[in-house]
What we know:
- By secondary structure, this protein is an alpha/beta fold.
- 44% of the residues lie in helices and 18% in strands.
- It has helices spanning 14-28, 41-50, 54-63, 66-69, 81-88, 122-132, 186-189, 203-207, 213-232, 238-251, 262-286, and strands spanning 3-7, 33-39, 99-106, 111-116, 142-144, 147-151, 170-174, 179-182, 192-195, 255-258.
- Helix 1 (14-28) runs parallel beside helix 2 (41-50) and helix 1 runs parallel beside helix 9.
Amino acid sequence: MKIGIVLSGAASKGAYEYGFLKAASEFFGIDSIKCVSSASIGMLAGQTLGIGKPHEFERIWKSINPKKHGRLFLSYGGPGPIRDEICKVFTPDDTLCYEHYVAVWNFTKSKVEYIPFHDQPYDKLQQYIKGAIAIPILVKGEIIDGDRILDGAFVDNIPAYPLMDKDLDYILCVYFDNHKYFFENEAFDSKILKLYDFPNDKRLETLVFTPESFDEMSKYGYDYTLKTLKKVFATDDKAQIMAAIKENNEAQQAEYKPRLTVDTVLNKINVMTKKYAKRMSNWEKTD
């Protein structure tokens, strides 16, 4: 079985994705996961699992001291020691066991790019890791090949696009928007198992961070995922699995909403570019 995974950006809710990945890799086996596409905090979860160091995700999370770094999770993608600590996890000897595409916002070219992390030399990978978590309101981003690279979650937070043309049997998509998204086209959408039935906290609570919350959130992600996978993949019959995917996606109590189309993403990029350009101008005046 060939499995693809989509991990959205979600700030402190990345702990749910840690639990999700643990359950998915145990249920299918890590060798069945062929492609991962991610944004922001999802990048860190997907990258650490892919190099066989998922424990580093947990270690980094629990090493953040709210009294020192602040309670807001913005410190994760802002300037300071946390981004440097994240980069130290990845060494030249690491090898990804699956393809990993990471959404970044190329501010210079005003577009979203899906960077193949599995195909990057070590030095450039380090740059892209910093750029992929560079929150626009806090930092100037990373300059890579002359382009300013920033957190892709601000322009495409559910980056399913890189998996559209991949030879995959099923795709597991984790996001926290509480909408029933329809992805791109019927054939692609029909094989996407959507996992978005997470605690619907207030938006501010997504940004508020406490190390103690990690175990509770990751356990919820693990239990919810494993329960769903056991129900959907209770048989080897593909028709029954597809029917179970549809039933799962429709059963959750959420508002239906079409998936972000290419045009919508481009419009969002244009709006974000204008806002960020003003901030960049202010930074340049104070430098």
